[in-house]
Design brief:
Blueprint: E1 2-4, E2 9-19, E3 26-32, H1 44-49, E4 65-73, E5 84-85, E6 98-107, E7 112-122, E8 132-134, E9 137-140, E10 146-147, E11 149-151, E12 154-156, E13 171-180, E14 184-187, E15 190-196, E16 201-211, E17 216-219, E18 222-229, E19 232-239, H2 246-256
Antiparallel strand pairs: 1-2, 2-7, 3-6, 3-10, 4-7, 5-6, 8-9, 9-17, 11-12, 13-16, 14-17, 15-16, 18-19
Length: 257
Amino acid sequence: VRLEPKTRTIYGKEVLVWHNKTSFPAKELWFHLYLNAFRNDQSTFMKESGARWGKKMIEKDGWGYIEVNRIQLASGADLTDRIQYIHPDDDNEQDKTVFRLPLPSPVKPKEKIELKIEFTAKLPSPPFARSGAWKDFFFVAQWFPKIGVFENGRWNCHQYHRNTEFYADFGVYEVEITVPENYIVGATGLEIKKINNQGGTATHIYYAEDVHDFVWTASPNFVEFKGRAQDVEIRVLMQKGHKAQGKRFLEAGKIAV
């Protein structure tokens, strides 16, 4: 994934390996496109929230979205034209937070399928419902095409609502995040490598096993505080204006562990 800060845009390539661990064949796959909750004021989330989050409102040019540009099998077979936006919870045809992908052949029980996905996402501004961007601060949550949960022969994959939480299988993630080289990155899991690229960017490679989701943040203005509790490394990233609170947050983390 590559972040373009000036436009709040993310360009991503995703390889998904999904295992059917049920006793039912999966004839189609369902996906969340959570960022489309911030596409306009007609999404189910925006209608339910009155286009507000607390006192916040998305600015005129601050809408966010996510588009799947291409989705194909590992063999190269293109499935993009099979994408169908659906709204399983209501009759809102303007909501694009869930899509289904009919497959050429079912994924049988105990088998797996590998997909290659290319997508473009734009973060809302200001940050809205725990995701978004403000100036050179980026909080990147619910940001990629995320497969739903297949249970008892049916997909548990709901639209993005005002008063619900996120439901997903646990998985293994390896994520390469490219940002301007002066940005400090925090993300799920452990940073296993950092590569300085030509052109003033750096790629941060993170790895996480058996986690529910993957979230990251980036800013050139973070101040880092590090500590340790038992065998757990703790890392706190604070905005410069809140630097004085850094040690307090670090101690809170230690107590939590």
